[in-house]
Amino acid sequence: MKRIDGRDYDELRPIKITRNFNNYAEGSVLIEVGNTKVICTASVEDKVPPFQKGTGKGWITSEYSMIPRATEIRIQREATKGKQSGRTMEIQRLIGRALRAVVDLSLLGEKTIWIDCDVIQADGGTRTASITGSFVALVDAVNKLIQKGTINKMPVKNFVSAVSVGIVDNKELLDLCYHEDSNALVDMNIVMTDKGEFIEIQGTGEGGPFSKEKFNSLMELAEKGLKEIIIIQKQVLGKLADKIGVENLEVNSSDT
Amino acid sequence: MKRIDGRDYDELRPIKITRNFNNYAEGSVLIEVGNTKVICTASVEDKVPPFQKGTGKGWITSEYSMIPRATEIRIQREATKGKQSGRTMEIQRLIGRALRAVVDLSLLGEKTIWIDCDVIQADGGTRTASITGSFVALVDAVNKLIQKGTINKMPVKNFVSAVSVGIVDNKELLDLCYHEDSNALVDMNIVMTDKGEFIEIQGTGEGGPFSKEKFNSLMELAEKGLKEIIIIQKQVLGKLADKIGVENLEVNSSDT
Amino acid sequence: MKRIDGRDYDELRPIKITRNFNNYAEGSVLIEVGNTKVICTASVEDKVPPFQKGTGKGWITSEYSMIPRATEIRIQREATKGKQSGRTMEIQRLIGRALRAVVDLSLLGEKTIWIDCDVIQADGGTRTASITGSFVALVDAVNKLIQKGTINKMPVKNFVSAVSVGIVDNKELLDLCYHEDSNALVDMNIVMTDKGEFIEIQGTGEGGPFSKEKFNSLMELAEKGLKEIIIIQKQVLGKLADKIGVENLEVNSSDT
Amino acid sequence: MKRIDGRDYDELRPIKITRNFNNYAEGSVLIEVGNTKVICTASVEDKVPPFQKGTGKGWITSEYSMIPRATEIRIQREATKGKQSGRTMEIQRLIGRALRAVVDLSLLGEKTIWIDCDVIQADGGTRTASITGSFVALVDAVNKLIQKGTINKMPVKNFVSAVSVGIVDNKELLDLCYHEDSNALVDMNIVMTDKGEFIEIQGTGEGGPFSKEKFNSLMELAEKGLKEIIIIQKQVLGKLADKIGVENLEVNSSDT
Amino acid sequence: MKRIDGRDYDELRPIKITRNFNNYAEGSVLIEVGNTKVICTASVEDKVPPFQKGTGKGWITSEYSMIPRATEIRIQREATKGKQSGRTMEIQRLIGRALRAVVDLSLLGEKTIWIDCDVIQADGGTRTASITGSFVALVDAVNKLIQKGTINKMPVKNFVSAVSVGIVDNKELLDLCYHEDSNALVDMNIVMTDKGEFIEIQGTGEGGPFSKEKFNSLMELAEKGLKEIIIIQKQVLGKLADKIGVENLEVNSSDT
Amino acid sequence: MKRIDGRDYDELRPIKITRNFNNYAEGSVLIEVGNTKVICTASVEDKVPPFQKGTGKGWITSEYSMIPRATEIRIQREATKGKQSGRTMEIQRLIGRALRAVVDLSLLGEKTIWIDCDVIQADGGTRTASITGSFVALVDAVNKLIQKGTINKMPVKNFVSAVSVGIVDNKELLDLCYHEDSNALVDMNIVMTDKGEFIEIQGTGEGGPFSKEKFNSLMELAEKGLKEIIIIQKQVLGKLADKIGVENLEVNSSDT
């Protein structure tokens, strides 16, 4: 029995990551996961938030937004309402945490990297696509700092990617599209590194409680998908991928 | 080796739930978990949000706040800043989801139950204490509706409680106090029912990725703690506890 | 003829002030005046507002809030609305003025004391209870500064307490509860020191003008009540009470 | 010994009230009290706030603002800051209460009268000038309703005017200008009717407590000034003044 | 002498308009003008603003935003700041006026068309590109209403497009890129129909006054460019272009 | 055929400019254009916005507001709404640009001149009256700086004034009153210097496109009106007028 878009229960949607999508940002990608499309930019700022001042460490923070007609029904623009929704705040906090967990902030020095995730079309999984795409933008931005000689060690220690899984009509499914997501009894977002370790596990029984067995089979499904996504990230990054996670690698601007 | 407050690694802090803490709310408790103290009130309103109108179903929503000096260092009042922080929004959305997942909203009818969680002292675990305490306040509020004859079946299907677990100094610990929480590499909040099923699993590698094994032993620790908490909820609710989760029980106002 | 709660026209509700209600604040009390309950905390901050910088003088400021279900009908949370009401602003300005009037700010040095009054149950007289309770919290906070040797003279010059009086059904009443307050033709809040001098007199003819005679008898009633309240404050403060208002007393940390 | 502007201690500044200052408002005046200048408009709206709906009664509400350079030093525009200050809220609530206290809202019917007080020059006493001036604008607006036959009894029962008094350099003074006000130890605003009854008495010991004797002599000074101000209001209103406070007077549009 | 990007003084940048860029909106385009890229969506809502209710007429309104890294230097997100800038407001008002001027709102019926212009890369001329692109999105949205039989006459009466002109280093230039725009002494935005008539002429002497002669030669340059842009719009719209501006054309859903 | 107020098609309304309208501002006027009345104040602040710091140049910025009953129907106060409308922002940006264009900011030094335009009665043309009046207030403020010896060259290079023109009932009209403005098909605001050069040309086809011929005749009408307005500005400024636009004139405080 096939899913609404013809996929198998454990099949990802096609993922396409276009690097250097934007002329100005230090790192930028357009990530497309099926019909979900997110522009992720990484911007380097030469200062850190007050709580990080004087520590010698950098910071990574994220902002997330959807254009009003990213969705089936137009949503009100947050700039017009004058405030961000709880959902937006929750998502941008998640993206920031996921990226900070794989970066050695002390190797970054007192800089902030702003990750902006702007969803231009939303068909489910916008927060996980944002993490997967932002990672690539982040690596590009950091690499630009190395090329300029601003920093000399690769601060990114691991790959990180994210995917959603859920239970729809009593079936565990990988990478939910919007139609599936809005009918899911259980909905999970998993963030994992290339070492198979986790950074974030968020499971919610929207439609009622779920058992440990269901949870475990969802986790397995997610792990399968995340391994595939990390392969795509590696392919997209090409030679740059080899610099990630190599302990104490001294990186010269001429190398890159 | 003992923890900072003398507890074992798998030991909860003392929990005290005072019912009818407030003269006005349909349901209200003061929950104390060690030094963490939260006032939870449940207020019944005779209408539902627009998206629920005409469905015959009710709604449960939550708001969360800390008084400025609930914490070691005074925090700025959100009413003065003019907006709620992302953390606040995240927490109040979590509380609302947790309670809705154990309530049959169609048995509630077109009413909203407002759950207000006001933290008057914060020593870690305020969001989980809020869920545990609010559940009791919710049952009291719903029972008042039954006593008045407004509804005639108990809409609450399961007990729900929440606890935090985490890894501090490479040790898995149950029910983190603030000092432990701020030093945790991994931090999880688990919401579980009395059937041992999950409503929410949120694990975050604040200090870096964590393995599946660590995750599993944290889950076990949480389950142990949550079973103990549900026993406390049952004791506190007394005879009312027997009404929860009895399928299709017709409840008379004279019974209660 | 007795009042709704059985009191005489010139009788205060029972007042209970619990010191050190909060683990973190430099000073904190729970004040209960009948069913009205307010948590008052005094927090010391090591800087002053811009207009006070460089003067060598400190500052005392206050913030006031009610939890949503402090009242019969749930009120909307100001943090959610995104702004404080005029009533809130008026009250917190009053509390700040009342306390500043009895403190020698130059003895405090360039510090700010934040007074937070959080009403957890409201049955009339929340602003006057806030002043009466905050005074005790303030003395405790200031005393902590003396004990730590940060300041060496007691900057609090007088006791200050507050009470409401009003005319209900053509009778002058002391210390109105909510039911009386909402039916009062005239409503007054009086702030007085232990010397019998006034800091604030606010009388409002909500239901129409009032004569000078009525005003004078209300003032007398207030004075009677305020003297009684100050006795309670003195009892609650114990030996600390003797340090207040002693001109130029050099206070050693060992004394206290 | 004369005051800074040559007045006696019990002397009002010159007051000038220009009726029909604005082409559009139902009632409007420019009131000048010395160098203080306020435009007061009264606008009639054909509905009431939610809490007054269905009662058959009207409502009077007030808004107050200062243009940025009404003062010696330019103040920031509240529309730019995005919120009104506590001072502004306090003042506009006072103006509204003062006017409502002399109007029989049931004779007004379900209408709202908006009183806008815009200070174009501020030399102390802007809130009391606003009340004195708004009263005249209100009477004109109400009279227009009578002329149009919308209402047929004069709902204004009393004259109302306001003045400030205070203690400067140990002298009681009537009608403080800004220079005096900013040096006052005690500052009072009194609102009185033409019957010599009070609507609002607000006394504040900005610079420390004050005795009952001082309070009483300030009250006397205020009464003297308020009687003079009401005479000016009567002169300004001319024949219309005779309609105020005549019990149950049936007013025809042809009379006015 | 060539311009920074090699163009002649009267040469447009390459324009590319991609229709149906978005899966959900009734009309949507990506417009690229050199390096400036804007997503324009047209969303149909089945109600009108209050001022238009009951008139039988529709409404067209616009919102404009830039993603934070659309520009050389990252700009702060307006949703985070909590308000839209004056520049944003000015631009979205301009877009709305320009489109309304070529639509017979009574043929639209009581519907609102929301035009969202989200700039994903900004190299000058974002407001004019927004108008040019939105026109195409609007025609597609309106056509969808005709196809569905919701309306039966084409309400769009004229083509409308926009371009900027300016004086840089004493030379009149067509279609300024960001580098030119930020060095322009005079900067104009012109909105014109396919009949050669104007809807909006906005000329600003940023660097000082300009003469009538300069103004006239800028107008000529704009007219030349606008004629070329309208040809591009016609090509992009294909057969749909023939339906615009045909008086009282009854359009059947089968025609389109 | 006469206009609604009896004027000829090319006739300005009577203009009256009262200098030194306000006691405190460095420059201030009341400008009356027919029934439109605006208070314009110019306030000097001894610092510049961040983007201008260290440049040695000054800045001129403007804020605009209407009192609520400046208009036929009371409008909501922006301070109450918590934000400025798009119209307000558009107007205040226009006023600022117009004045900056005639001032040599480097002769001003690192100072900001705040131009506040507060409309106390609005009968059309409030933005153009604001520009015309603010110019006079600006000259007075700058002159005060010269008199005090703070600056020694006149930084104002040109007179600047503004007027509206429009097409009503197919007739080109100069200086529209509100009634005309709200019925205009085309509405233009023109800002011109005493040299006959333009600073701002804003034409909008509110009711549909307009031809180049119509535009040109509107421009001519505007030029006629603006020349007359500048004569009035010169008369009002008296001897001060001679100092404007005299290249490199060294101005002594004794001269003025």
How far is the N terminus from the C terminus of chain A?
47 Å
Poorly predicted ranges of chain A = none
What strand line-up does the widest sheet of chain A have?
1-2-3-5-4
Tally of helical segments of chain A: 6
Number of strands of chain A: 9
Global structural class of chain A = alpha+beta
Biggest interface found? A-B, 34 and 34 residues
Verbal overview:
The structure is a homohexamer of 256-residue chains. The first copy, chain A, has 256 residues and is an alpha+beta fold. Chain A contains six helices and nine strands; from the N terminus they run E-E-E-E-H-H-H-E-H-E-E-H-E-E-H. In chain A, the strands form two sheets. In chain A, strands 1-2-3-5-4 form a five-stranded mixed sheet. The first copy, chain A, has a four-stranded antiparallel sheet with strand order 7-6-8-9, with helices on both faces. The longest helix of chain A has 26 residues, at 212-237. The first copy, chain A, is globular, with a radius of gyration of 18 Å. The first copy, chain A, starts with 14 loop residues before the first strand and ends in a 19-residue tail after the last helix. The mean pLDDT of chain A is 95. The A-E interface holds A 22-25, 28, 35, 39, 41, 43, 45, 63, 65, 67-72, 74, 77-80, 82-84, 88, 114, 116, 118, 120-121, 123 and E 22-25, 28, 35, 39, 41, 43, 45, 63, 65, 67-72, 74, 77-84, 88, 114, 116, 118, 120-121, 123. Chains A, B, C, D, E, F: It comes from Aceticella autotrophica. Chains A, B, C, D, E, F: GO terms for molecular function: 3'-5'-RNA exonuclease activity; tRNA binding; tRNA nucleotidyltransferase activity. Chains A, B, C, D, E, F: It catalyses: tRNA(n+1) + phosphate = tRNA(n) + a ribonucleoside 5'-diphosphate.
